[in-house]
Design brief:
The complex is a heterodimer of chains A (about 280) and B (about 350).
Chain A (H helix, E strand, L loop, with lengths): L4 H30 L2 H4 L14 H7 L4 H32 L5 H12 L7 H10 L6 H26 L2 H9 L4 H12 L1 H17 L2 H6 L8 H11 L4 H26 L11
Chain B lengths: L5 H6 L34 H32 L6 H5 L9 H7 L2 H34 L2 H16 L2 H11 L6 H8 L14 H29 L3 H9 L4 H29 L3 H7 L10 H11 L3 H29 L4
Helix pairs in contact in B: 4-14, 5-9, 5-11, 6-9, 7-12, 9-11, 9-12, 10-11, 11-14, 13-14
Classes of the chains: A mainly alpha (about 280), B mainly alpha (about 350).
Chain lengths: ~280, ~350
């Protein structure tokens, strides 16, 4: 069906407006980070940072404890994601491929846990950690982050495992593999995109987490980047250039990972595997 | 075979009991297709029957320890008088339902609850309506334009919450914020140097814009993904019958996408209801506590006022409200998906 010129134009016009709406805050963050101070606080906003400077990034990176925050964030996030991947792969395999009593109950618990109101359980988490003398430590933080991403990880991996045709596993076993071997040699390699995208989302969740670390770790040497960023605004007052440089440093790894892995994750690796 | 459920057997009639076994390794998986070995299977050995439980053990242990315990602790503390003194001296003072009667009898609690409900409804309506429209638009765009818009959506989606909150604070900055400049240029001159965090409504406006901006992409992408699964013939048939765009939407798209709408709406309700970081970081629940929502209220009562018992009671009440919503959500999900 042919559409009139207007009928063909308006979706594109709206799309352009929406494009600006969604991308502008991200653009403005990056643009401000590169601007000279005089441009940041000019009466008329400078939309293109033509005389760019790295001064703000320099300031942000040399802020006290920056690299400690970076390494803390990485330790906590990677620890939580890897831990939950191992635990979740086992559980996901069980619920995707096995029938047993209590399976449905477990699935329901996973779904409920996925929506757990961590935001209001901070008081209890704080009291538990404090009573066990583990405040200002990365261990309980990693453990809680693991739990925050675990239900989602189980749930998505279940989907990915269920999507691997049973025939593949079965023929491996007919050829003499044990079930464990069949899993490791046949299913596991096919799960790679699933593991990647799942860990990506887990990574983002843990990387972003603010309320819990804000309460549990008051000492700078065990804090993470979200705290650094939120305190940046307080410490540097109206230095928006440096604050935006800090935001950019914090956000860009996630943005890149997201755009890159989003594509990789969507791919039919198993599409042709069963044919023939 | 105890590990096989009836459903599996009906899926592949006749082969439900056929074990796909190499030697004596019995598979607990369902739906074995025609076994190539044709070797009849014996009953599962005890270890095989236990396998699923062993696989689930770490997940269950983690859930009990890291989720169950804090949940239990929240409930226990909500029945205690736990203030700064008791906290420092490690005292446990039970006070029955006192925290609950205090909260349920407090006008503040009900005002904040009402506010949280309105806040949630406004956000979710905006997210769902606009997200659906963006999804429909994605489906209609040409390839290049769709990719362009998708990139912007992905960036907004992926933007870390703390970073997004910081950026929005900067966009709405009183002195040098680009929003105030823009509104002034549009002719709304009183908005130059407007302090967005000075009133309840303007603060909520920023918070809602922030949440809606970050949440639309999820709905839009899911909507678009759902739309691509609707066969073209259905649209054509509807068009042949003389349906216009709106009619196609209500009669073709809505019925097919109904499960998606229900599930996503509930997810968004739950997410927005318990949103903490955005609300808290934009203005710490201010001005004058007028943008406190329930999670922020529980937090500020607990850590701000050092009244951990009262904070936990608010937390439990919030959890009860969320649990009620979730129960409703699960009923829908369970009806839709029998293949859990």
């Amino acid at each position: 069906m042919r559409r009139s010129l207007i009928g063909r134009t308006w979706p594109n016009a709206i799309a352009v407006v929406l494009f600006v709406f969604f991308i502008f805050p991200v653009y403005w963050m990056i643009a401000t980070a590169f601007k000279q101070d005089s441009d940041v606080i000019s009466r008329t906003p400078v939309f293109l940072p033509l005389n760019a400077t790295l001064e703000h990034f320099d300031k942000a990176v040399h802020a006290e404890n920056f690299w400690t925050y970076v390494s803390n964030s990485l330790i906590v996030t990677v620890g939580a994601v890897l831990g939950s991947l191992v635990i979740a792969t086992l559980a996901a395999f069980a619920i995707a491929r096995m029938r047993f009593r209590g399976r449905k109950g477990f699935v329901l618990v996973v779904m409920a846990a996925q929506m757990a109101p961590w935001e209001v359980m901070i008081i209890a988490a704080y009291l538990i950690v404090r009573d066990n003398d583990m405040l200002n430590s990365l261990v309980p933080l990693t453990a809680f982050y693991l739990m925050m991403v675990l239900p989602f990880t189980i749930w998505t991996l279940r989907g990915f495992i269920a999507a691997v045709p049973k025939e593949l596993e079965e023929s491996a076993m007919v050829d003499g593999c044990t079930r464990t071997q069949a899993f490791l040699k046949v299913i596991f390699p096919l799960l790679a995109p699933g593991l990647m995208s799942t860990s990506l989302f887990g990574f983002i969740t843990a990387w972003n987490e603010f309320p819990l670390v804000n309460i549990l770790n008051k000492k700078p040497d065990v804090q993470t980047l979200p705290l650094w960023l939120s305190s940046f605004q307080t410490n540097f007052g109206t230095d928006w250039g440096a604050t935006m440089a800090a935001s950019t440093l914090f956000a860009v790894p996630i943005l890149i990972l997201f755009v890159f892995l989003q594509r990789k994750a969507v791919g039919g690796l198993t599409d042709g595997a069963v044919k023939g | 075979m105890a590990v096989h459920s009836e459903r599996v057997q009906t899926q592949s009639p006749g082969s439900g009991k056929a074990a796909v076994a190499s030697t004596d390794e019995i598979v607990a998986s369902g739906a074995g297709r025609t076994p190539k070995s044709g070797r009849p299977a014996g009953g599962p050995r005890v270890p095989a029957r236990l396998t699923p439980y062993l696989l689930l053990l770490p997940a269950v242990a983690a859930t009990v320890l890291l989720l169950g315990w804090p949940l239990l602790k929240t409930i226990l503390v909500s029945f205690q008088n736990l203030n700064k003194r008791q906290l420092i001296q490690h005292l446990t003072e039970w006070n029955g339902f006192e925290n609950y009667t205090e909260q349920l009898g407090s006008a503040d609690f009900w005002r904040i609850t009402g506010r949280t409900v309105v806040f949630t409804v406004v956000n979710v309506v905006l997210i769902m309506v606009l997200g659906t429209l963006v999804g429909l638009l994605l489906n209609r765009l040409g390839k290049k334009m769709r990719l362009t818009l998708s990139i912007a959506l992905i960036l907004a989606w992926a933007m870390p919450v703390v970073a997004a909150t910081t950026v929005f604070t900067w966009l709405f900055d009183q002195q040098f914020g680009v929003v105030n400049w823009f509104l002034d240029k549009l002719g709304w001159h009183s908005m130059l140097h407007y302090n967005w965090t000075s009133t309840q409504y303007s603060t909520f406006f920023v918070i809602i814009l922030l949440i809606v901006w970050g949440s639309i992409p999820f709905v839009a992408f899911n909507m678009y993904a759902g739309l691509t699964t609707i066969p073209k013939e259905l649209y054509e048939a509807a068009r042949m019958d003389g349906a216009g765009s709106f009619r196609v939407f209500t009669s073709v798209i809505v019925p097919i996408m109904k499960p998606f709408f229900l599930a996503t709406t509930f997810l968004e309700v739950i997410w927005v209801f318990k949103a903490f970081t955005q609300v808290y970081l934009i203005n710490k629940g201010g001005p004058e506590d007028l943008t406190r929502t329930l999670p922020v209220h529980a937090f500020l009562e607990g850590f701000g006022a050092q009244r951990f018992g009262a904070g936990s009671a608010i937390a439990v009440l919030t959890i009860v409200m969320l649990a009620t919503l979730m129960a409703y959500y699960f009923r829908i999900i369970l009806k839709q998906e029998d293949e859990l």
